[in-house]
Amino acid sequence: MIIMKNKLEKKIKKIALERIDRLMNLAKEEAEKGNWERVKRYVYLARRIAMKVRLKMPKKWKRRFCKKCLTFWIPGKNLRVRVKSKRYPHVVYTCLECGKVYRFPYIREKKEKRKEKNTIQTQ
Predict the structure, then answer these.
(1) Residue 56 phi, psi (nearest 5)
(2) Which domain holds residue 25?
(3) Which of 16, 65, 75, 112 is deepest in the core (most CB within 10 A)?
(4) Could you report the per-residue pLDDT of 110-120, keeping only the tens digit for each?
(5) For residues 18 and 4, what is the distance between their CA atoms, to the nearest angstrom?
(6) What does the H/E/C string look like for 79-121?
(7) CB 32 within 8 A of CB 73
(8) What span, in angstroms and rounded, lies between the C-alpha atoms of 53 and 50?
(9) Are the C-beta atoms of residues 36 and 71 closer than 8 Å to each other?
(10) CB-based contacts of 57: which residues, under 8 Å, 6+ apart?
(11) Is the pLDDT of residue 1 over 60?
(12) Is 93:101 a contact under the CB 8 Å cutoff?
């Protein structure tokens, strides 16, 4: 009984991932055309599917839309991207539709560069 339930859950999650991917691809196409109401609907449906099945949004789509207004981002059109280095190095995304600000640190890249530099100096 438990084995069948696990197999069923895996199938459901696989189908959900396929649907999320398809909806986000459609949202991308519609965003390029400029049909923003349809874009928001596709993003909304993709998020609802992910929440219903208790899945994380796939990494390639996670930072491609605003979580507040559900707008699919196109840099320069409805998204401002800035790189800041004060306090801690980070990238700032500003949604131009609703004004929400997202900050994504890129400390990991800095740490890797520092490690490479230290290994070169020790040799």
Answers:
(1) -80, 150
(2) 2-122
(3) 65
(4) 676 677 777 77
(5) 21
(6) EEEEEECCCCCEEEEEECCCCCEEEEECHHHHHHHHHHHHHHH
(7) no
(8) 5
(9) yes
(10) 20, 46, 47, 50
(11) no
(12) yes
Residues in the chain: 123
Which of helix, strand or coil describes residue 58?
coil
**Residue 21, domain CATH:** 1.20.5.420
How many domains does the chain contain in total? Answer: 1
Q: Which two tokens stand for residue 41?
A: 């609907």
Closest by CA position to 36, among listed 65, 2, 8, 1:
65
Q: What angle do CA 86, 104, 39 make, to 5 degrees?
A: 135
CA distance 21 to 107: 29
Cβ atoms of residues 91 and 104 within 8 Å = yes
Give 70: exposed, middle or buried? Use CB within 10 Å, 0-12, 13-18, 19+. Answer: buried
What's the pTM value of the predicted model, to 2 decimals? Answer: 0.77
Phi/psi-derived region of residue 36, left when phi > 0, alpha when psi is between -120 and 50, beta in every other case: alpha
Find tokens 């459609």 and name the residue.
Answer: 26
What does the mean pLDDT of the chain come to? 88
